[in-house]
Amino acid sequence: MEHEPRVLRLAGGFGRARCLLAAASWLPCVALGLALGSELLLTALPAHHCGSDPARAPSTCLPLSYPESVPRAGSDGARPCSRGWYYAQSAADLLRSPVTQRNLVCEDGWKVPLEQVDHLLGRLLGCVLLGLGCDWFGRRAVFVGSLVLATGLGVGEALVASFPTLLTLRLLRGGALAGASLALYVARLELCDPPNRLAFSMGAGLFSVVGTLLLPGLALLAQDWQLLQGLSALATGLLLLFWGAGCAVRGTPPAPAPLSPGAPAHTRHLEERTHPGLQLISGGIKASFLHSLVPSEPSFYWPYFLAAGLEAAATIFLLLTADLWGRRSVLLLSTLVLVLASQLLLAGAQYLPSWMVLFLSVLGLLASQTVSALSSLFSAEIFPTVIRGAGLGLVLGAGFLGQAAVPLTTMHGRHGFFLQHVLFASFALLALLCVLLLPESRGRTLPQSLQEADRLCRSPLLRGCPRQDLLPLLPASLPGAGTQLAQEG
């Protein structure tokens, strides 16, 4: 476990040059946050109706008059619109979006959640596959390659003519952007020494929130989704120009391939299974809290800016507490708050006063953001260098899988929304028990190999019992490792 401090000392320590390099890695997070956040703007549904007289329209999906040749309405009451769609106002300041351009409403409204699931699936695959590539080919190669793909695919999205082609490009570009974010996250973590990892990781999160907040203003200037996508591709292209050939990930050589000769191939620790579950829960349960917060059809800006503000608040909370109390204690507290808020809303939302429902929903959203951010940092510190990219990719991919449950429910008319809330609330309760078994990674050096990760021990949760919890969670992978640990103790 002394390899990392020795390398840092030989490289001059975490001095001014490495500090500036780690801080400069925050700047790409603005462009990446802007590109990844565009999904909500592109799929926002504007106010619409069929025909030219909104006062006489019976509903948003029924035209004013029907020719006799038009078939009867389906089971959902929707009928083909014979006079064209009229969009009363723009959504998210875009006068033209994929929804309005292709009339993805009413009988074609199922294509919107399909596109959302497609984009999230791309981000999931990008995290898993390009995370593995980070370990095989190095962080810098994956970062540069992902930026090249994201820039080219962004230009293709701006010029696309058909909806199936748009789905394909959204899938691929989501994966490329997720891969670039993952490679940059891992490289930044490995640049920092233990006392500075939290600060620089959370600083990058705040810069990503800045990009999310800048996106509506950019959409107001563009007012066309194709121009907005072109500007997003330009931003990633500038990253490629100034960062791809620069030093964003310099000093991070390609890691050895996972399961190389001499590395044990066995089942990983409990903590490496807990963090994907936490990401899955926090990603999927956010929609339940938003639904409790605004049960009717919300406007675009209210949930958008609320989620961004709570993400910034969760990041600041972690900056103030995670190094002071430890990763495991803060994660345990956040998961406990998440469980309590979800259970109370699940059991008594109909009987609680409105101010209590509002408070529990905001508290649950804040807790889910905290769990997601801290679980990413926690798992990156626990996974050894040889599989850190692949391990963190699996963890982040589980979060996108949880988010994909929301548009799938919307596709079926939100009929399974209550069951989805029950499922995620139950999983959160199980995750709370697993957090108790996690080790504490605060102040520890990053494990470099699978053998070093095997020797991670659970530190006691209570400081009054320093000797009762010094054994590893699982037997050591090497035959003599247990004897060696006993001798060291």
In DSSP terms (H or I, runs of 4 or more residues), the helix count works out at 18
User: Averaging pLDDT over every residue, what do you get?
Assistant: 78
Estimated radius of gyration: 24 Å
Number of domains: 2
CATH class of the largest domain: Mainly Alpha
| H-E order | HHHHEEHHHHHHHHHHHHHH
Tell me the span between the first and last alpha carbons.
15 Å
The coarse overall form would be globular
CATH architecture level-2 label of the largest domain? Up-down Bundle
Number of E-state strands: 2
State the low-pLDDT regions, or none. 64-77, 244-258, 260-268, 464-489
Question: What's the SSE blueprint?
Answer:
Blueprint: H1 3-10, H2 16-24, H3 27-36, H4 38-42, E1 48-50, E2 85-87, H5 98-102, H6 111-137, H7 139-159, H8 163-191, H9 197-222, H10 225-244, H11 271-293, H12 301-325, H13 327-348, H14 354-382, H15 388-411, H16 417-435, H17 450-454, H18 481-488
Antiparallel strand pairs: 1-2
